[in-house]
TrEMBL record:
Keywords from the UniProt entry: Membrane, Transmembrane, Transmembrane helix
Keyword Transmembrane helix appears in the UniProt entry: yes
Organism field: Enterococcus hirae (strain ATCC 9790 / DSM 20160 / JCM 8729 / LMG 6399 / NBRC 3181 / NCIMB 6459 / NCDO 1258 / NCTC 12367 / WDCM 00089 / R)
InterPro entries given in the database record: PTS_IID_sorb (IPR004699)
Annotated TM spans: 22-44, 64-87, 141-158
GO process annotations (BP): phosphoenolpyruvate-dependent sugar phosphotransferase system
Protein name: PTS system glucitol/sorbitol-specific transporter subunit IIC2
PANTHER family listed in its UniProt record: PTS SYSTEM GLUCITOL/SORBITOL-SPECIFIC EIIC COMPONENT (PTHR40399), PTS SYSTEM GLUCITOL_SORBITOL-SPECIFIC EIIC COMPONENT (PTHR40399:SF1)
Keyword Cell inner membrane: no
Gene Ontology CC annotation, any one: membrane
Length: 177
């Protein structure tokens, strides 16, 4: 009987811990996210949507910017999932690589800018809690972001080459048929 009582207490304790965590998020992280989202939206309105989009369109002409700065700015300003809409400024042959680079940016950006992909925040906080015991959480966030810039550039370039190869192969099959 004592075993069943302990099992029941443990089972309910698990839900109580979840509820405590939820209340903690409501009093700390949620207001932070709302403030960041409001700030970013206000900044876009102040700068002007046409200016922001015009700048992005000019940047897409350069491979380095197309697969580093553009995914970062799209994630920062539009957040997930709207960040993919910046793909409309790219030529068709660059869209798959842009998507790949942007998807790869969505987790690392959370360490410094949690509003960008708030769904990933809970994963990051779990990692950061462990890292916080041995180091600085901001340092972890910065390292994540710097590593992400290298990774998304490489992934963007490789995906662009793969997409070009597959498109050319498909075009060749079509002309032969």
């Amino acid at each position: 009987m004592n075993f069943l009582v302990k099992l029941s207490d443990g089972f309910m304790g698990m839900f109580q811990a979840g509820a405590d965590t939820f209340v903690g998020f409501l009093t700390t992280i949620v207001p932070l996210l709302i403030s960041l989202i409001l700030f970013v939206n206000a900044l876009i309105k102040i700068i002007g949507e046409k200016r922001v989009f015009g700048f992005m369109q000019r940047c897409t002409k350069f491979t380095l910017l197309r697969y580093t700065l553009i995914p970062f700015l799209a994630c920062f300003f539009l957040t997930n999932p709207m960040c993919y809409t910046f793909g409309r400024f790219l030529k068709e042959e660059h869209k798959a690589a842009y998507y790949d680079a942007t998807v790869s940016m969505l987790h690392p950006i959370v360490g410094l800018f949690p509003h960008a992909n708030s769904a990933e925040l809970f994963v990051y906080l779990g990692v950061a809690a462990g890292f916080g015991k041995v180091g600085n959480q901001s340092e972890l966030g910065l390292r994540y972001l710097l590593a992400a810039f290298m990774i998304i550039l490489v992934r963007g370039i490789i995906t662009e080459k793969i997409a070009r190869f597959l498109t050319q192969r498909e075009a060749k099959k079509t002309t032969e048929a």
